[in-house]
Amino acid sequence: VGLENYRDVLGGLYFREAAGTTLWFALASVPLLIVLGVLVALLLNESFIGNAVLRVGMLLPWALPATVAALIWKWIFLDSWGALNAGLYTTGIIDNYVGWLTTPDLARMAVVVVFIWTQLPLIAIFILAALQAIPGELYDSAAVDGAGVFGRFWNITLPGIRPMLVIVTLYAVLMAFTNFDIVYALTQGGPGTATTLVTYFTWVESFKKLDFGTGSALAVIIALGSLAVILVLLRAIPKGALVEE
């Protein structure tokens, strides 16, 4: 059929909706994921009782298979007997159960929450490693010069972790664009098509509709799109950000 499958995909309404949802998902989750990763890494970089246990324990969400994590959160978000509704209703915060997974905007929020929960540990650990590579003498000198907490973060910490921020941002963007397991187990792309990402759309075309031509075209488009994201991000990196000159 030549390029007919690609023309059908790119000109189709469902693909445009799925692409828009995927872009929204990445824009909503990645910046929040990076900010939270930095904050958690800063916390873990401090000395306090239980720090070592917390570092090991926080890796559990990342170590769990994404499908298992999504099923755990599905039990929390379920409309009729989910743990979140039960807790909010029992404490009197809500009068009626909330349709977390049956309301489009709330379902999108739920997918973002679960994605961040699964990816945050690895992001935080990578940033923590970058933090610990910054010489302590720099902070001592800055303190002597009168630099405050924000000044030390802006002039020492942020430049020191910049190469790692580039790496984890690239990783997070690619994970957001190729996320499938969480949507599959948590919402099945619903309600309607509210959480249908391009990857889930590819699965539907290939294995539910058995249209392998369209599914293959979508898979190639995802691969090319991911490559484009990589190239754009790499070109946007300031010279010398990854390698000290």
Question: Keywords, please?
Answer:
0% strand; mainly alpha; 245 residues
Number of helices: 12
How many strands appear in the DSSP assignment? 0
**Share of residues in helices:** over 70%
H/E topology pattern? HHHHHHHHHHHH
The fraction of residues in strands falls at under 5%
Write down the Rg.
21 Å
Determine the mean pLDDT. Answer: 89
N-C termini distance: 51 Å
Largest sheet: none
- Weakly predicted, low-confidence segments: none
Structural class label: mainly alpha
The 3D shape can be described as flat
How would you summarize what this structure contains?
The chain is an all-alpha fold and 245 residues long. The chain has twelve helices and no strands.
Provide a descriptive summary of the structure in words:
The protein is mostly helical and 245 residues long. Helix content is 73%, strand content 0%. The chain contains twelve helices and no strands.
List the helices and strands and how they pair.
Elements lengths: L3 H8 L1 H32 L6 H7 L2 H4 L2 H12 L5 H8 L13 H29 L3 H9 L4 H29 L3 H6 L11 H11 L3 H25 L9
